[in-house]
Amino acid sequence: MGAMASWSEGGPVEIPISEVTFGDNLRGMGLDEAHVALLMEASGQWPPVLVWGTANLLVDGHHRVEAARRLGHGHVLASRFTGSAEDAYLESLRRNISHGLPLTLEDRRRAARRVLGRHPHWSDRRIAALCGLSGKTVARLRREVHQVAAAGAGAGVVVDMDRRVGRDGRRRPVHMADLAERVERALRENPGASLRAVAAAAGGVSPETVRRARARVMARGADHAAAGAGLAAERPLRAMRDWADDRALAASDDMAEFARWLSSTDVDDDHWRPYVWTIPVGRIYEIVDEARRRARCWASFASLLECRVRT
């Protein structure tokens, strides 16, 4: 998630409301009056607020402090958070996602942009879990953040995103298929741009990643040209078996139906390859998820079927 929650020993203490300080509010619309009124009715049942530092900067509990102030209370029960200012911000974000009055979608997106700006090496899933968003939304926001940064910096701000830190703190490679698709799309859209400019347009990958992708694209172009001239070796095609003609499977009506279904669902490279570069960008993630779902279904089917001959 975000910061590791840490509190001082001794439990919550009462601190004067006048000594509480307020930082940036996560909520773009400010306090929610209905929620403050609800808290005022439940006075005495609130959990402690969370403060940080000698200035008692409020990490979590803006509505509770406001309810206490309106009720005329001089003090509020508080726990102390220890860590850096950034740790305190991340803890504030984590708490406002997981309980209390939920942040709006725009509040969560704004928080994700800030986290991306300060922790670009974190994975999309880690930031998504922290901010209450989907990984796809964070990926899109990441591209926007890097495009804005690149525009402001002229040649582009390069952030190595080949590896990112996940929720468990371990560094892992970005999914290579997604990375390659993003870089090659940026190359097509910016054919004459420098490696650094393409890297920024692709979402902050390294120039070396762009150089390798450009070499792959050029090699494919050479292969296609050679094939057109009759110079490339012919790729052997996999014979598509017509399972409906299989005598063993035709032994019963159920098996005959299965055989027809198996033949109708046969897929090889020639079926899907023409669509790789034509599917709309806005549908890529959904189709990727669907392809992987079908792959998992086939893998489960194969495993269960194989168990019949292994037991």
Description of the structure:
By secondary structure, the protein is α+β, with helices and mostly antiparallel strands. The protein has 3 domains: 13-103, Conserved hypothetical protein from pyrococcus furiosus pfu- 392566-001, ParB domain (Alpha-Beta Complex); 106-228, no CATH class; 279-311. It is elongated, with a radius of gyration of 28 Å. The chain has helices at residues 33-41, 62-70, 85-98, 105-118, 124-131, 135-153, 176-189, 195-201, 207-228, 253-264, 269-272, 284-310; strands spanning 13-16, 49-52, 57-60, 75-81, 163-165, 171-173.
Structure summarized in a few sentences:
The protein has helices spanning 33-41, 62-70, 85-98, 105-118, 124-131, 135-153, 176-189, 195-201, 207-228, 253-264, 269-272, 284-310; strands at 13-16, 49-52, 57-60, 75-81, 163-165, 171-173. It is α+β, with helices and mostly antiparallel strands.
Name some characteristics of this structure.
alpha+beta; elongated; four-stranded mixed sheet; single chain; 311 residues; 3 domains; disordered N terminus
Biggest sheet details: 4 strands, mixed
Mean pLDDT: 76
Give the helix proportion (percent range).
Answer: 40-55%
By helix and strand content, what is the structural category? alpha+beta
Cα Rg: 28 Å
Shape descriptor reads: elongated
Count of all domains? 3
Number of strands: 6
CA distance, first residue to last residue: 43 Å
* SS summary, helix count: 12
- In the predicted model, the low-confidence regions spanning at least 5 consecutive residues are 1-9, 153-160, 230-239
Share of β-strand residues: 5-15%
Please provide the ordered H/E string of secondary-structure elements: EHEEHEHHHHEEHHHHHH
Strand order of the largest sheet: 1-4-2-3
